[in-house]
Every structure is written in C-alpha cells, then in structure tokens.
Specification:
Layout (H helix, E strand, L loop, with lengths): L1 H8 L7 H12 L4 H9 L6 E8 L2 E3 L16 E9 L7 E6 L8 E5 L5 E4 L4 E10 L2 E12 L5 E4 L29 H4 L6
Antiparallel strand pairs: 1-2, 1-3, 3-8, 4-5, 4-9, 6-7, 7-8
C-alpha cells in the first residue's frame, strides 16, 4: 500500500532519499531517523552476541557451552541469557529459544536496547538493557531472565538473520554446523554462495 502510493505520487519524478524518509515517517507516524542515519547514510553494522548463558544458576558459556547440563526435576528451568552489542550501533532484534530438536525456535523474546526494563508475562521473561556510548558507538548489554518448561537446546539472537550482523557466528549459544550430503563434487560445492 505504501509503495503503491509512492509510485503514484512520484511517477516520472525524482524520488530523493530525504523525500522517501519523509513519506515513510508520514505514513507510519514513526521517526525513521536512526534507521536512515545508520543503514542508508552510514557504514556501520550491528553485531549482537550471546555472551553467556546460566541455567538454574550454573554458568554455561564459552567452551563449556558445548556441555549440556541435565536437570532431573520437573520444575521450570530458570535461564539467564547475557547479550552484548559489539558493533557500531544498537538495533532492536529478537532472541530465539529452541526447546525441541529441529530448526524452529519455539520461544521468541523481543530485544529493545533502548528500553531499560521490559516485562513479558506471556513468555515469563524479564529483559533489562543498559546502553551507553563508547567512542561514538552505541553499546548495549542485555540480560534476559526467563522461566522455561525444559532446558534449551539452542539460544540465538536474531534467529531469522534479519539484521546485517557483522559476525553471525557469535549469534548462537552453541555453535551450529550447516552441511549437506552431495553424491558428486560439483562447482557449487566449491563456491560459497552465501553471505554467512
């Protein structure tokens, strides 16, 4: 609807970036200044990282993240997730928590670095964020406390890969391996066609 209106209004005319931003802000009633400053005019990228995870008050991070801790009781699993923004600016994103085998994330928690406290009763989570300026760059640290029905299999920030993340390998709690079986070696197998 928005793009059709832009096309009708600017048909056979020059649409400048400033005009597009103004039209977008008029349409959404929301300021898009940060988006255009960082993504259109700037060269910076964001880089969210899962810093560490604590399950039932046991610290699991770094190399120890490869070891799964098993809980034998049926009570809810208390998980604390620490996220860190290492890139040039803070961008809202989503935290995905996988509880079952597969590639889907059953629980999604919104991450808004500009909101100091966010209580989400529907997923039994509390998100606290602290943002600061370091060397002219925004840096956020986020702590997510959540009660889960079982231990998580994977925790990923930006699980749908929406953001232009500088280093996507640090977006996951446990390292993810992607592979496929190819009966014959082809040129496609030798060329990296992804941006990851």
């Amino acid at each position: 609807d928005f793009m059709r209106g832009i096309y009708r209004k600017y048909h056979f005319r020059i649409l400048r970036v400033a005009d597009f931003q103004r039209e977008l802000e008029d349409y959404t009633h929301h300021s898009w200044d940060d988006f255009f400053r960082f993504w259109v005019y700037g060269t910076g990228q964001c880089d969210w990282a899962v810093e560490r995870v604590e399950i039932n008050e046991k610290k699991v991070g770094g190399l120890a993240a490869q070891v799964r801790l098993h809980s034998r009781n049926e009570s809810p699993t208390q998980v604390v997730i620490y996220l860190k923004q290492q890139g040039d600016f803070n961008e809202p994103t989503t935290l995905g928590i996988r509880l079952q085998p597969g590639s889907d994330y059953q629980i999604r928690v919104p991450i808004h670095p500009d909101m100091p406290l966010l209580e989400l009763a529907d997923v039994h989570a509390v998100v606290t964020a602290v943002s600061e300026q370091v060397g002219g760059k925004q840096r956020a640290r986020v702590r997510v406390e959540i009660s889960l029905p079982s231990e998580p299999l994977q925790i990923s920030v930006d699980p749908d890969r929406i953001l232009l993340d500088q280093e996507q390998t640090n977006n996951h709690w446990k390292r993810e391996f992607r592979w496929h079986l190819s009966p014959l070696l082809t040129v496609v197998d030798e060329v990296d066609v992804s941006n990851a």
